[in-house]
Amino acid sequence: MQNNDIQAARQLGEKAAKATRPEVRLAAVRMIAWFGPRAIAELTPYLADADEGVAMEAAAEWKRIFANECNDREKLAVAALVMNRLTSETMLEELGVEDVFNEVDDEGAAVEVLIGVIRTGTPAGVKFAKNAYDTVTG
Q1: Consecutive sets of 10 residues in the chain, 138 residues long: mean pLDDT of each?
Q2: What pLDDT is attached to residue 26?
Q3: Of 16, 53, 66, 70, whose Cβ has the fewest other Cβ atoms within 10 Å?
Q4: SS3 label, residue 19
Q5: H or E element, residue 41
Q6: How far apart are CA 97 and CA 112, in angstroms?
Q7: What are all long-range contacts of 89-95, with beta carbons under 8 Å and residues at least 24 apart?
């Protein structure tokens, strides 16, 4: 897959995210998901979509990519991104973001990412980061 393909998908995704029809946003979620870990950040805004069907599809694709296609470094980066952006504790819990920090091999990197989220994340993300920090550090 070429970088220009990802750029084109990102541009299309940005336009689709502004569409008033949920089926357009849903199609964008499905298209973006084809790009796997390299485009997971583009799926993140759809997790908070006003249409429950779009948000649920985005969550399903996000979780699939995150669990099956991301390495530990990517998982930490994506978890931080999500905890810095999402304001819904329910969505963070559903995505299992907090669990990532217990599953990665590099505890030092996990702690570093958690400290960053605690400093700059959304209130919901900070709450999850603090819980994960307590678990990781004992």
Answers
A1: 68 80 92 84 85 89 86 88 86 85 90 95 92 91
A2: 93
A3: 53
A4: coil
A5: helix 40-43
A6: 15
A7: 89/124, 89/127, 89/128, 91/47, 91/48, 91/55, 91/59, 92/124, 92/125, 92/128, 93/128, 94/59, 95/47, 95/59, 95/62, 95/63, 95/66
